[in-house]
Amino acid sequence: MPLLETVEQETGANPAWTILWLHGLGADGHDFAPIVPELLRPGWPALRFVFPHAPVRPVTLNNGVPMRAWYDLKNLDLDQRADESGVRESIAQVEALIARENARGVPPERLLLAGFSQGGAIALAAGVRRERAVAGLIGLSTYLPMGSTTKAEATPQALATPVFMAHGTHDPVVPEGFGARSRDLLKTLGMDVDWHSYPMQHNVCAEEIRDLGDWMDRRFKAG
């Protein structure tokens, strides 16, 4: 499987940590690159931000129009929303990028796997299934796909991974209830989920970036 193309930013020489960040439906790897300077704090280790481009595929709910997507959307219902074959294909592509970071000197224990909306769904789905856990999972305005198979496929190592989830209370694209149900499922499995909600729609706000920075700061200090 060829590696996905990526946009990359390094905050210093010889990055000690990687943040692998997956964009939402119809966007690309450039979408969240501008967030880097807003997120950074003095005293953090050198970081490599990796923003991959999702493959282009037809999306059923968008009248079959091809766009960058991590999987097809066939139904608005939470349990039927994600195309399982597409989700598993994207998980494999994320695994290949994590392996490349390991080869570049950043092991999974110093990698944060993040995503917004569809990208967050893949980040959560990949993270709970890893035999070698990453340092943390970040899911913004998102949900956990294939929830019914998660309990059977989640690994004990992955279930010890800390999770940051955030959602807008007025989100018309991914209702906050979808995120809350996924949060509750992850907590039921024993995961430590740091949950935040904000009075916003399907986007990211300054307060959220601040809270995420606080959470990331704790990950770096623990690592």
UniProtKB/TrEMBL annotation:
<feature type="domain" description="Phospholipase/carboxylesterase/thioesterase">
    <location>
        <begin position="14"/>
        <end position="214"/>
    </location>
</feature>
<dbReference type="Pfam" id="PF02230">
    <property type="entry name" value="Abhydrolase_2"/>
</dbReference>
<dbReference type="InterPro" id="IPR003140">
    <property type="entry name" value="PLipase/COase/thioEstase"/>
</dbReference>
<protein>
    <submittedName>
        <fullName>Carboxylesterase</fullName>
    </submittedName>
</protein>
<keyword id="KW-0378">Hydrolase</keyword>
<dbReference type="InterPro" id="IPR029058">
    <property type="entry name" value="AB_hydrolase_fold"/>
</dbReference>
<comment type="similarity">
    <text>Belongs to the AB hydrolase superfamily. AB hydrolase 2 family.</text>
</comment>
<dbReference type="InterPro" id="IPR050565">
    <property type="entry name" value="LYPA1-2/EST-like"/>
</dbReference>
